[in-house]
Amino acid sequence: MNWLLVIAGAVVGAPLRYLTDRAVQARHDTVFPWGTFAVNVAGCLVLGLVTGAVTAGAASPQVQLVLGTGLCGALTTYSTFSYETLRLAEDGARFFAAANVVASVVAGLGAVFVGAAVAQAVWG
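and the corresponding structure tokens:
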């Protein structure tokens, strides 16, 4: 039954990723992959919040399956991040490639930390 919860979250996460990526990228006239960056950081924030809520006992493990594994798993994308970084480097935009790596790691870790801290403050 758990796999159905994961599927339910993914059914929402995958189109949300695509639509958010396209909407964000359309607003920026740059080679930097802002759409992928935005969905990955948002997913980290949600995952931190959900994990913090489950740890505090405010949410069930089933919520973590739906939102954490399903939604965030489909919303975020390491493969696209990797591909876009490689494409930037190959196209000669090495500064943007390096900036994508550094900013994605720093912002992603920061977002998951903020999400967990918010959960702790609300439910801890």
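(Above: one complete record from the training split.) The chain has a mean pLDDT of 97.
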